[in-house]
Amino acid sequence: YYALDLNYQDRLEKKQNTALLPALPQVKFEASTQKIQVQFPEGMTPQSGSVKCYRSVTTKEDFTTPITNAAALEIPAEGLSAGRWHVELDWVLADGKKYFWETTIVL
């Protein structure tokens, strides 16, 4: 129980940091290239983190992609089921500040 509480507090602090950003990350599905595109706000290059993609209807297709020193990512989406996907971005900047943001996209 205590560990869950710490994780909740950690995520809350990350969400608060994200809310203070002048712009949020952009996440979209590009049908022509069959890729999920992630673009962090201008001037922001995460040093580490992850992009977790999942569907509420099944856990079979859940996957996580690492973020390594990149302001933008293209995640291959060919073969993924059509429909609504939840995307969670969890990242850390070089100064150690941590962020978390979630959104949904439709493939």
Mind explaining what this structure looks like?
Helix content is 17%, strand content 43%. The chain has 107 residues and is an alpha+beta fold. The strands form two sheets. The protein has a four-stranded antiparallel β-sheet. Strands 1-2-5 form a three-stranded antiparallel β-sheet, with no helix packed on it. The chain is globular and about 35 Å long. The model has no long low-confidence stretch (mean pLDDT 93).
Care to give the gist of this entry?
Helices cover 17% and strands 43% of the residues.
Highlighted features:
107 residues; alpha+beta; 4-stranded antiparallel sheet; 3-stranded antiparallel sheet
Instruction: Provide the helix percentage.
Output: 10-25%
Mean pLDDT over all positions: 93
Q: Which word captures the global form? A: globular
Count of distinct strands:
7
Counting DSSP H or I runs of 4 or more residues, the number of helices is 1
Measured by DSSP, the beta-strand proportion falls in 35-45%
As an assembly, this protein is single chain
The biggest sheet, with number of strands, parallel, antiparallel or mixed sense and barrel status, is: 4 strands, antiparallel
> What Rg do the Cα atoms give?
14 Å
Stretches where pLDDT is under 50 for at least 5 consecutive residues are none
Element pattern in H and E: HEEEEEEE
Which structural category fits the helices and strands? alpha+beta
